[in-house]
Amino acid sequence: MSGFHIVVCGSIVPDPLQTLEPMQGPTGWALKNEMMLPAVLDPWAGHALYEAANLAANVPNSKVWLVSLGPKAKLQQVMMSVAQKAPFDLVVLDGPAGGFTEAFETAQALAGAIEGIDGLDKSKLLLFGGWQSASRGASATLQIVGELLGITDQFQGVDKITPEGDGFTVLERIEGGAYLESSCAGAPAVLGWATGSLPEPPNNPQIGMQNMQKNMPAIQRAPATAVAAEGVDFKSVELPKQVRETRIVKDTPAQDIAKELVDWIRG
Amino acid sequence: METLLYLAHTEADGSLSKTALEALGAAASLASDLGAGFSVGLIGEDVTQAANAIGGCGAEKFFAVSGPDFGQSRYSTDTAAAVALIQAASATLVLAPATSRLARSLPGAAQRAGGRADTQVTALAVDSGSVVATRWYYRQRMFSNMTRSQRPWVITLSPGCFPAWEGEAGSPSVEAVSADAATNTTVKGVLAPSADEQTIRPDAEMLFVAGAGWTKKQADGQTNVGGAEKLILGFLDQAKASLGSSKSLVDLGGEGQEVLSFLSHLHQVGQTGSTPRHAKGLATCCHGEEPHVVGWRFITERRAVNLDEGCGWAQGKADVLYVADAFEVMTKVNELLGS
Ligand SMILES: Cc1cc2nc3c(=O)[nH]c(=O)nc-3n(C[C@H](O)[C@H](O)[C@H](O)COP(=O)(O)OP(=O)(O)OC[C@H]3O[C@@H](n4cnc5c(N)ncnc54)[C@H](O)[C@@H]3O)c2cc1C
After folding, report:
1. pLDDT tens per residue across span B290-312
2. A13 FRET partner, CA 20 to 30 A, in A48, A78, B41, B114?
3. What is the whole-number distance in angstroms between the Cα of residue B251 and the centre of ligand 1?
4. How high is the ipTM of this complex?
């Protein structure tokens, strides 16, 4: 087996425990205090990274890159913890990572960065990422990067990859809790990950140190990258209005609650 | 003037799914709002049954890419087929169901056709002659009403948001369109739980969410995971509900704790899980934290059973919170449902 060159595309999103509010900024729609919100690695992209590291550890001659487009100061913070999870070479583009930028423009920037990776053999390329971002949630970026790089074997909602000869079999999520099982003869291919099948790796400070030494320069020299939403006209961006008036039922016998529930279920 | 194409694929049995019929309803209604006609583009092994079933939908033309290579979900063949159909119809606006099959191929197809895609759109309107699409951001935290200038504009429509098309069958003539079937991918098949093991039921009226509380020590100081399994499966069976879970509960497996044997990550609802669509949802032993509840955006009526009066559901996230022991309540609920 000749090994895989695994490029994981993944950026940062606001910590989901934060309250998010849209606002019209100088360059279009954004989040209120976007630069102040604590950020995390986009969760599904995180799973893609852990799966990539595991695949590279099990298939000789494989290597992992992480390509991130995001505001570099925030990326640097998040990378301090992500770097402890798995070894990778980092490629950074300094630009917006918010939900109101275009998947196409993001994809174009990522494809350009991938084309520019030194030593990347595209015939061995497995392009990984989350199947949806937690910001735009479009499930579009990876597909477009794949198209721009001429990769027409693509898989989304992936929970498992099993190397097989020069290729692999893959399980993609489909409706009703089922999986579509396919085999792919070999790289190049695109895999957009869902949760995968591995737990989050524990922090490993040694890997973290090595990663940061190697990757700090990539963050420092990250090129400024303009990404917007040309051609899109956001008429409005709103928070859903509905807050429910919760009726709280307490000190009530289970039998009475059950009766009310069953009436509701049957009603 | 827009040239509208409704794009869909057949199911394994040659029919169109409910989600596909909802998208057809939306396409027909949008075409009428725009004062435009529309055509139909179908992908499948044999599309005759599907084309006939929607023969009366008012489309001006039917196109199809068909044959054994196009019977199954596969990116390479589905994108080739979609691009060929978009070109055959000279479409500027494409409406398609956000089935897993098209969700995983149409953004790529839009790119190859020189256009753009907006996915998981939940509403459509026409404003001063232009189409306005509603879609959600940050995992259903906020939504935009947006329009765009690029064409072709491919829009995938979320399930459960539009009334399904109903109408007369017919026998339309279908123009065959050819597409490149070259691929490195072989579809081996679908791994589905057997009918009696299936607990994720997208078409169910009701979602039942189980949280980590089911596996925690209870008032007697003991856990009762076996009892929880029986109660949950008993309820699902009688209410024909779909099962969802919190992240904490599905993650327990990875932490080596005793867990509910029928749960997997596929059940997880929320930020890093699914956003199912059901008319009613009942949350049990689940705290109702925001990263979980964002997955409930499209659950219309919501109730919760939790021991903690201060849990998230009480903060305007549920219509009713029953402050009670879910073991006791669900035992009684199952008895009543069975009687
Ligand atoms: C990046 C990120 C992504 C996340 N994504 C998701 C996601 O997709 N989905 C998700 O669910 N969470 C997600 N979370 C986690 C989320 O914040 C919560 O931690 C999680 O939802 C809690 O699960 P729970 O309510 O089941 O468990 P707990 O918080 O442990 O709550 C258990 C509840 O059970 C109740 N209980 C116990 N016994 C009984 C009983 N006998 N009767 C009634 N009630 C009882 C308790 O009162 C308590 O409220 C995410 C978090 C992060 C940081």
Report:
1. 999 999 999 999 999 999 999 99
2. B114
3. 11
4. 0.97
